[in-house]
Amino acid sequence: MNYTKKYYYAFEDRYQRISSQGLEYWTVGLISVADSIERLRRFITFYGLSPNNTKIIEFGCGEGHIAKYLIQQGYEYLGIDISPSAVTNARNLLEKANLPGDFLQGDITGLNMLKGDCYNVAIDNFCLQMLVVDADRYCYLAEIKRILKNNGKIYFHEICKKDIVIDRLDSFQDYTDLYMHDFGALRDFEVFHSNKKQVIQLPKLPERYRSNKEYKKELNNAGFIADEIQEEENRCVIYAHK
Q: Considering the entire predicted model, what is its pTM?
């Protein structure tokens, strides 16, 4: 894997590898998609959100499964992903469903093309955990805060594990030195095609999980106030506001 670009550009490589192996979408199955949507539905109910007055932005939108649900509910929506292939797949997914969709390929740590204070809700479904360097996580959270309106709501859904980092990670090299992952080695990876499970070969992606307490502290330091924290097995869901 060539990491001369930012390490999270590896997601484009992942989508291209999946496509080259004959899979149209990268998903872990309909059950996983349904689970993510049900968790998001509970967030919407918690805050009493309505499509009539709610603009939603999703960071790390992937192939548009959450976008499809939200647009079907009538929400005004923008999805952002670093991967051009993901954005193309998301547009195709909505086109097949005859739904309008607004997507943007961009780096979530710097979205100068977007105005501030213009969205009511931000969604992060397994996105923050894919940023492993402290400065990248800080810039990403700062962008969310800038883009959200006053009292805007944010939904975080991440894998939850205690972080082995004692102090800080200032570079991707620090991350590789600490975690000792071989990002070039291929591993078996379960995917679903036509709702049937199959195994393909893919390299590992950089990822940095944190504990429930550590995620909350990270959000507080970025200026967000947590309203609800849910932890079950290895998942952490946080509802917060600006």
A: 0.92
